[in-house]
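Quick start: what a row looks like.
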Amino acid sequence: MPQTQKQKIGEIGESVACEFLMKHNFLIKDRNYRKKWGEIDIVAGKDKILHFIEVKTVSRITEHQPEENVHLWKQKRLARAIRTYLLEKKIPEETEWQLDVMAIFLDFKTRRAKVRITENIIL
């Protein structure tokens, strides 16, 4: 099935996010964990904390911030996907985890990206 332009930009953003995380000593454990009720873009570990990361990518300037697209409905879907992941992967209950949102700003003219992280979103 061919990708839409939005899907291509999202995939590029997720790759940029993974590179950024690895440069900052995160271990990428999973990408694009999908269930019918939700998807987790990136699962990474650092300092004994499991990070569930939602990536929002934009390639043009808008009046809205990318993080604003993680609305209540999306948060509920993420919470369910995270619970499923923890159970399915048999992650010990005492494992600390958090939800982070990474906003990726792509500039195709200069071939550069800017990254902004909002950590530990409350679900």
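That is the whole record. The mean pLDDT is 91. The longest strand covers residues 96-107.
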